[in-house]
Amino acid sequence: GNSVTQMEGPVTLSEEAFLTINCTYTATGYPSLFWYVQYPGEGLQLLLKATKADDKGSNKGFEATYRKETTSFHLEKGSVQVSDSAVYFCALGLRTDKLIFGTGTRLQVFP
Amino acid sequence: KAGVTQTPRYLIKTRGQQVTLSCSPISGHRSVSWYQQTPGQGLQFLFEYFSETQRNKGNFPGRFSGRQFSNSRSEMNVSTLELGDSALYLCASSLDSGTGVGGELFFGEGSRLTVL
Predict the structure, then answer these.
(1) Among residues A6, A11, A1, A15, which one has the least CA distance to residue A78?
(2) Residue B83: helix, strand or coil by DSSP?
(3) Residue in B29, B101, B22, B37 with CA at minimum distance from that of residue A44
(4) Which residues in B lie closer than 8 A to residue A42 (C-beta atoms)?
(5) What's the pLDDT tens digit per position in A67-97?
């Protein structure tokens, strides 16, 4: 079946530290891959996406590369800020608008 | 451009009651999806509607139902509420040409249901 596995949190970092949140997937077919972010008390917002192998999605300093050979879509940021504290969800989408989400990773950034 | 609007934002019900949640998608978006978010199960897909037709359905019991109107607004209903139905219910809309290709979803802030 189709599934997404992402690292458990919380991930706790100091401001300006390097961030990696791992995400791997299992899918039949050729999915699009997404990272969504959820700030406290809010709904999910699309952070970045990639629609085919070797694509790199980027936004607000965050990056993720669609790696078909390792079935991965790890999220990275070179220097995190306190304002990046949120829950991050990796997701895959196939031939419908149904998205399959990972369990989410809480990021806490301290000054 | 207004985002996805969900009402009510918060509600409290008791076991056995029913509840109806509403979602107004972004203007021009024809696809509306519903997700249930709980601490234990994470985000789980409920169903998706496109042009008033249910196109996809998740693994939830028949107590969970939905519909979409001609203006793309959607409602979901949960009957005979159980304690385990306490969750944040998220609605998402997308600009779907009808080809059913997975694309960007725009989420509302959710309706937080508490069942006592």
Answers:
(1) A15
(2) helix
(3) B37
(4) 109
(5) 999 999 999 999 999 999 999 999 988 766 5
